[in-house]
Structure formats: C-alpha cells, structure tokens
Amino acid sequence: MAHGRRGGGGRTLLAISPEVSDVMYGYGYGMNGWGYAALVIQVLFWALLVVGVAFLIRYLARGRHETPAPPPAPQVHQGPEQILAGRFARGEIDEEEYHRRLTTLRSG
Question: Which residues form the SHOCT domain (predicted)?
C-alpha cells in the first residue's frame, strides 16, 4: 500500500509497495492485450526473418548453378536421298537439279 514518509528538507515522499506497483503498471495479473500483441509481432518477425534468409540463400545458390546443356541429339544416319531432299527443302538446289541428282542416285 502507499505509505507517506518524511524525507529530508520537509518533503513528503510516497512509497509504493511492490504489490501495488505491479498492479498499477499492468504486470500483476497476467498478460494484457499489448502483451499478446507484442508476442504475436515477435513471432511473426522471427518467422519472416527465417523465411527471408532461406529464400535469399536459395536465390543466391540458384544463381551459381548453370543449367546443364541438353544432351546432343543422337546422330541419325541419313541416306543420300534424304540428304538431297534436305538440300532441296532448304533451297540450296532448285527442282531441276534435285530431280537430276535423284535420278542419278537411283540409277547408280
């Protein structure tokens, strides 16, 4: 409880017992709304910090690894007629030269 006492110089000092002090400043009867809010904010802060660090590490680690080149396509053996048809399709030879060479290939 509050007790008055005389201090030096004629001033009265108010002494507050620890029980009254605890109740007055909101610490005596458990956690109040602000205590719960601070707890939630603290948990969210640390969770976001951990998740942020994890994503940062993942981002930095991904940047260091280059994607491997795809394996080369298997070499398919093309016959002479297929090679000639490919040259004709790409426009390297005209139709007359294509038919002339095709006839030459089939007769030989």
Answer: 81-105
